[in-house]
Amino acid sequence: MFKKVLIAEDMEDINKGVHTLLKELGILHIEQVQYCDDAYLKIKRAGLDNDPFEMIITDLSFKADHRSQTYPTGQALAEKLNAEFPELKVIVYSVEDRLQAVRTLFNQHHIDAYVCKSRSGLKNLTKAITEVVNGNTFLSPEVSNAFHSTNELEIDDYDISLLENLSKGLSQEEISALYKKVNISPASLSSIEKRLNKLRIQFNANNAIHLVAIVKDLGLI
Amino acid sequence: MFKKVLIAEDMEDINKGVHTLLKELGILHIEQVQYCDDAYLKIKRAGLDNDPFEMIITDLSFKADHRSQTYPTGQALAEKLNAEFPELKVIVYSVEDRLQAVRTLFNQHHIDAYVCKSRSGLKNLTKAITEVVNGNTFLSPEVSNAFHSTNELEIDDYDISLLENLSKGLSQEEISALYKKVNISPASLSSIEKRLNKLRIQFNANNAIHLVAIVKDLGLI
DNA sequence: ACAGTGGTTACGGAAATCCGTAATGTCTTT
DNA sequence: AAAGACATTACGGATTTCCGTAACCACTGT
Hints:
- 2 copies of one chain form a homodimer.
- The first copy, chain A, is of the alpha/beta class.
- In chain A, 48% of the residues lie in helices and 12% in strands.
- Chain A has 2 domains: 4-143, 3-Layer(aba) Sandwich (Rossmann fold); 151-217, Arc Repressor Mutant, subunit A.
- Chain A has helices at residues 12-24, 36-48, 74-84, 99-107, 121-133, 157-167, 172-181, 189-202, 208-218, and strands at residues 4-8, 29-33, 55-58, 89-94, 113-116, 138-139.
- In chain A, strands 2-1-3-4-5-6 form a 6-stranded parallel sheet, with helices on both faces.
- In chain A, β1, α1 (12-24) and β2 (29-33) form a beta-alpha-beta unit.
- The longest helix of chain A has 14 residues, at 189-202.
- The two termini of chain A are 39 Å apart.
- Chain A binds chain B through residues 64-65, 67-70, 72, 166-171, 205-210, 212-213, 216-217, and chain B through 66-70, 166-171, 205-210, 212-213, 216-217.
- Chain A binds a DNA duplex (30 and 30 nucleotides) through α8.
């Protein structure tokens, strides 16, 4: 089990709940912060002191208040931590269940676990911690279909960009021209058509209108 | 002419351009901010000091940065200002040309003018100011059809049904066939096309995809 | 080196859309 | 009954999307 863990969570009650859980798991040194910026500073400091944190459990959304923050969200924090402290284990503990966000966190920012706050949130969090201790990753069942669900739902940023531009009213040809101008790689009309066709199949959409309606409902864009 | 005016605009160059224009119009006391929150604070302060601003010229979209904001957009700011300082004149100066947004600003938040940033943006802004000085309202020609066009903002159940079927992936021909079967009156493909065209114009949509995206955002479907 | 794989691009035809014009129908007004 | 206003429908052509096929290129591996 880990010895030194940090909790970043703005809601005091939840913060306290997680703290209790960690104590029950036998973690000796637990610190808590209510701002992402404070989390970063504490981790930085601990690194300089040669007594680094082994793991952080962080929320995604922190309500904004008077204090302006360099890292306003857990996502921003995760990105920074992955770049600067790649060995630090990161567990995200959030109500968010947007699959694309989860995918980005795993693929881009290499977090180790994603746990949804829900009825059985703490139970899943326990599972997540034991998995991460053993060097594995963990994904809450609520969002498990973000990856190994039925289909290989590989929706990357390019796809999102495509869908966003479509929903903004650009024709496929206009998107092609735009991508050529700003040097986004598959830029040909043909490639865009092909990619959209793939997305239509993945989302069971009859046509582009249907596709955009679906992904808007899913919150992907 | 007004004596004391505030400019809220995050792009420094534009901010400066508007400032110059106001000086040319003979406005003596001009202040500038790059965040909506600062605008609110300045207006609040001036009110408490019994030297209130007479007018604010504000953008709609402010790019987000590290500073967390209570009023992230000009829309949020306008709403607050209308509630707290109803006598303050508000001119919105934005690239946005979404008619529904303009309508909301006028009807809900009672702004005094809406000017589109465009080739002739500053010219229209001048007009807007003189109109507002005289107690009138002003609307950029680009969005003038938000109101005193036919102003047939009559979106009826038929329109909604059309948009819903579109978003469910039916082609216009399929919708036509469906309406013929269940005896919904304008059922011909031609009528459906015409109606959708009217909706596209009303919502400033480039195509059907764009239209569905817009009305989904508006919560119409 | 050579086949195999996967990603990008090109092309062409069918289908659907976009958009203007015009014909038909329906209802009201006089 | 005639005329006018307005909604519905019909039609034609330009554009766009949809979809299959295929060429081209980079990269991989026994």
